């Protein structure tokens, strides 16, 4: 076992060790950039399809002489790189400040398998098996604008506020190991000014939740309002409190839940408004179908809707010969939708929207 004590691979309270192996080290090319006013990036091209882990290990020195003699280092650049495309990886450090003349002694470590973690005496350790990296030297000769595209950047129509992206680059990803409220916001409102006017309200329930993560899966569950308030009042005479100070009476709607990503890629909209066009809403599934999905405002919304006064034409007939029970121009369309629930509610055998992961990739 070879300990990286000479390069001090200390992560929080964990010490990382590496072992030699007979595996041939894959071809790796690296482009390093020191950013202005701070930050560092390593663009890595590696034939490493069998691993999800690539480690960048760098040591900082004031000049080349000290770097070659491995003496008096002034800092570290260490961490796991992120896969950006098929064989492209990116390691970033947003906080390090590099000066012209600084030298980085660096190596790229590709484990044979997933890291093995352990804990001893309250100290976490991480062991990686793989070929020892071939260390090289990089001298900072100038600082780069962080908005400059990467070395293998292909042009894309996708635009992201504040930075340049490349075709195939992963812009956002969530695997729903937990419901991250720093990324997602559960909306609560009745979409009376929504361009499609769906017949529902969006609510966040504290008990018998309709939005939750379980076993790495996001679940959005539509429920009938009638079932929720039956113990206390009728849907025709009761009231609905959406916790924002507005009480809406006599709501004849089922309800669901909608999740809006709070970290937006284009103009910020917290809710739908009358000016928002249908083309700016990403629909993962839509009755009637879209051959092309256009999104010129990449706000990502996940939700379950019901009915509506623009999605289904008045001439719509189900495969079982049933006609639509409301007209789009009827001011009581949602009421007629509710009154005909005996015809559509039995079809809600698996109404949940389940999402394994969300990944947004530049075109």
UniProtKB/TrEMBL annotation:
<dbReference type="InterPro" id="IPR043030">
    <property type="entry name" value="BGBP_N_sf"/>
</dbReference>
<dbReference type="InterPro" id="IPR013320">
    <property type="entry name" value="ConA-like_dom_sf"/>
</dbReference>
<feature type="signal peptide">
    <location>
        <begin position="1"/>
        <end position="18"/>
    </location>
</feature>
<dbReference type="Pfam" id="PF15886">
    <property type="entry name" value="CBM39"/>
</dbReference>
<dbReference type="GO" id="GO:0030246">
    <property type="term" value="F:carbohydrate binding"/>
</dbReference>
<keyword id="KW-0732">Signal</keyword>
<protein>
    <submittedName>
        <fullName>Jg9821 protein</fullName>
    </submittedName>
</protein>
<dbReference type="InterPro" id="IPR031756">
    <property type="entry name" value="BGBP_N"/>
</dbReference>
<feature type="domain" description="CBM39">
    <location>
        <begin position="25"/>
        <end position="133"/>
    </location>
</feature>
């Amino acid at each position: 076992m070879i300990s990286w004590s000479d390069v001090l691979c200390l992560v929080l309270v964990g010490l990382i060790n590496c072992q030699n192996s007979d595996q041939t080290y894959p071809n790796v090319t690296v482009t390093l950039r020191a950013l202005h006013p701070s930050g560092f990036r390593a663009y890595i091209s590696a034939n490493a399809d069998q691993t999800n882990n690539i480690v960048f290990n760098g040591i900082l020195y004031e000049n080349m002489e000290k770097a070659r003699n491995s003496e008096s280092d002034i800092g570290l650049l260490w961490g796991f790189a992120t896969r950006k495309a098929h064989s492209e990886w990116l390691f970033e450090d947003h906080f390090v400040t590099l000066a012209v003349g600084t030298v980085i002694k660096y190596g790229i470590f590709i484990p044979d398998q997933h890291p093995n973690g352990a804990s001893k005496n309250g100290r976490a350790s991480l062991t990686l098996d793989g070929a020892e990296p071939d260390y090289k030297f990089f001298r900072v000769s100038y600082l780069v604008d962080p908005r400059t595209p990467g070395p293998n950047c292909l042009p894309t129509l996708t635009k992201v506020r504040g930075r340049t992206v490349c075709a195939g680059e992963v812009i956002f990803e969530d695997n729903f190991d937990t419901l991250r409220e720093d990324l997602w916001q559960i909306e609560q409102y009745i979409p009376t000014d929504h361009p499609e006017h769906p017949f529902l309200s969006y609510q966040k329930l504290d008990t018998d939740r309709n939005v939750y993560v379980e076993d790495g899966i996001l679940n959005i569950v539509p429920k009938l309002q009638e079932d929720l308030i039956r113990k206390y009042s009728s849907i025709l005479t009761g009231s609905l409190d959406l916790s924002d100070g507005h009480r809406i009476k006599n709501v004849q709607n089922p309800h669901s839940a909608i999740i809006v990503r709070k970290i937006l890629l284009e103009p910020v909209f917290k809710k739908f408004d009358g000016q928002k066009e249908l083309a700016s809403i990403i629909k993962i599934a839509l009755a009637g179908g879209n051959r092309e999905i256009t999104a010129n405002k990449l706000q990502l919304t996940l939700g379950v809707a019901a009915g509506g006064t623009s999605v289904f034409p008045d001439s719509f007939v189900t495969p079982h010969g049933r006609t639509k029970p409301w007209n789009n121009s009827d001011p009581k369309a949602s009421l007629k939708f509710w009154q005909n629930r005996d015809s559509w509610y039995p079809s809600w055998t698996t109404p949940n929207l389940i999402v394994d992961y969300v990944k947004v990739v530049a075109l």
